[in-house]
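Researcher: Re-running this chain for the archive, since the previous output was lost when a drive failed. Same request as before.
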Amino acid sequence: MNIRYFLRSIVDARALLSFCSMVRFTALGSPALFDWAGFASHKNGRPEFWIFCIKLLLDMLPTLTTLQQRKSHLYSPEDLNHLWTCPYILPDLNPCLTHRSEVIKFRDSCLSSFLSLKFLDTSFQTGFSTLDCWDYDTPSPSCFWLTRGLLPAHLTTFLKQYFPLSVIYKTISPLLNDFQVELYGEI
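Model: Regenerated structure tokens:
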């Protein structure tokens, strides 16, 4: 076992122990905010609050999935799809519509950038527009790749038929960056 890792874990354990045995907690010279002595000894009759604070400190609070399983009457079974498809969200703030408009804008800017580099026939435009990565309705896995800022392999494979790889990356990188900034800024 690495001795530095072992010593670090001892230091961390001592720090946690000293935190848990605090008598009073003060912030910026103000009077005590919490009476940790009474709190830690459960004299307040609320041991759940102490458990909550320790879980909060150690980042061990349950996730929404766990809470839905424990108390299903309190947490509705809404998921991420509900966020994207909820009809009660205002149209201007709907993330699904924002995603669609940003994908369309990114596709059109990529198409115009590549068409400005050299003359290409209509088969390029048709093939480029029918790629799977522009399928925002379903959305396709490669569309999710673009949303995360990654280039799908079939997009670069298609573009390599017409341009060298260095030209593709030089052209599409700033457009992809702008797409990411606009998409996550709007959503």
